[in-house]
Amino acid sequence: MTHRRDRMRAATLAEIKQLARKQMAEQGMAALSFSAIAEQMGFTSQALYRYVPSRDALITSLVVDACTDLAAAMEAARDAIDPEHDADRLLAVMLAYREWAVGHPIDYALIYGKPIPDYRAPETVIGPAIQRIPMVVLGLLRTAWLRGRVTALPEYGPLPAELETQLAALRHADVSDLPLDLLHTVLVVWSQLHGLITLEIFEHLHPALGDFGALYRFEARTLLKRVGLHPKA
């Protein structure tokens, strides 16, 4: 009976999240309404609180789910490539990042879109989930750097002292040995690719460009080449 109850609770929570995503897709990210979800499920608003304690808790859960799913997709792409092939692994991760984002626009917006009004993300919960995403890329770059296969862009050295201080504060323990100019290079490169995806998802790229995937793949390969990595794929 306990297992059956757990399964039913999990299924109900999954339905709540599905309806929340549908509501945000149709009415905007700020339109999330507990009462509307309860009505669709045939619940009272009070009954819904037995599954999710608050609107903020629901949003937090959706963000954590999105981060976990995206990181898992990137890790799966990484692990499908021979560990010796740094460039190919990084390209696979970059392509997986876009593929997931295009396939999950609402989840992508939850992570990287405009802040939802009156929602305050709990950093202790959201922080580790979001950090897992860039760590997939940083971990691969660190490996390539230790093997002498990747270099920082020359125009980013030497960095201004103020910028060095800011970058040092961003360092994660797992990549604390990365040179700051390389960390800055990663930040710039990732921002460019992330910007292309954001423009595509929010329909700010001109339709005449046609295959946005082709544009993204070309830019990803070009950016990798700039740091000394040459994917074969």
Radius of gyration: 20 Å
- Let me know the average pLDDT: 89
CA distance, first residue to last residue:
51 Å
Q: Helix- and strand-based class?
A: mainly alpha
Count of beta strands: 0
Characterize the biggest β-sheet. none
Order of helices and strands: HHHHHHHHHH
Shape from CA axes?
A: elongated
Poorly predicted regions are: none
What is the tally of helical segments? 10
The fraction of residues in strands falls at under 5%
Q: How much helix is in the residues?
A: 55-70%
Describe this structure in words.
- The chain is mostly helical and 233 residues long.
- The mean pLDDT is 89.
Short key terms for the protein model shown above:
233 residues; mainly alpha; 10 helices
What does this entry show, briefly?
This protein is mainly alpha-helical. It has ten helices and no strands.
List the helices and strands and how they pair.
Elements (H helix, E strand, L loop, with lengths): L1 H26 L6 H8 L3 H4 L6 H25 L6 H18 L1 H8 L10 H24 L14 H10 L9 H22 L10 H15 L7
